[in-house]
Amino acid sequence: MDIRQLKYFLAIAEEGQITLAAKKLHMAQPPLSQQLKLLEDELGVKLVERGSRNIQLTDAGKILMNRAHQILELSNSVVKEIEDFSKGLKGTLSIGTVSSSGETLLSGRISEFHKEHSGIKFEIYEGNTFTLIDLLNKGIIEVALPEHHLML
Q1: Using CA atoms, how far apart are residues 80 and 74, in angstroms rounded to an integer?
Q2: How far apart are CA 62 and CA 68, in angstroms?
Q3: 3-class SS at 139?
Q4: What are the domain boundaries of the chain?
Q5: Treating both helix axes as pointing N-terminal to C-terminal, what angle do 3-15 and 29-43 enclose, rounded to 10 degrees?
Q6: What pLDDT was estimated at residue 147?
């Protein structure tokens, strides 16, 4: 299993049809179907139930979809971090906040901090408290700020 296959699988899962996913990915449908079959063979489990028009994720497919999102987020984060490093920047701080406080977080103190320390980049993730705890435990974010702790 590789990143490309995960991207293909997510496109299929999100579009609900292999044909639509192929169009989204700018590729032909047969190679995309083949990639899905190879992934299922490698994992030894069916990921989708194929219907006449749409596909439905199996329980294994739902698990893979959730993990694929996390893996791709981590992969993108690593790419950004390496790009920042190669440009001589100091790093990226991933912050999680509840959705209702994102606007407050994005303005004010973070903007001031960024002006003084331009080598620090921020990635902001929004979600409810349980999502933030999950992202924190998985290492996707370094800091989680629940709504009542926004005292920037």
Answers
A1: 10
A2: 10
A3: coil
A4: 3-65, 89-149
A5: 110
A6: 62
Q: Do domains 3-65 and 89-149 have the same CATH topology?
A: no
Task: Specify the CATH architecture of the domain 3-65.
Answer: Orthogonal Bundle (1.10)
Distance, in Å, from the CA atom of 44 to the CA atom of 106, rounded to the nearest integer, reads 44
- Cβ burial 6-35 (10 Å sphere, 16+ → b, else e): bebbbbbbebebbeebbeebeeeeeebbeb
For the chain, how long is the longest CA-to-CA vector? Answer: 58
How far out from the chain centre does Cα 149 lie?
25
> For residue 64, what are its two tokens?
């893979």
pLDDT tens for 41-74 read: 999 999 999 887 889 999 999 999 999 999 998 8
Just give the CATH number of 89-149.
Answer: 3.40.190.10
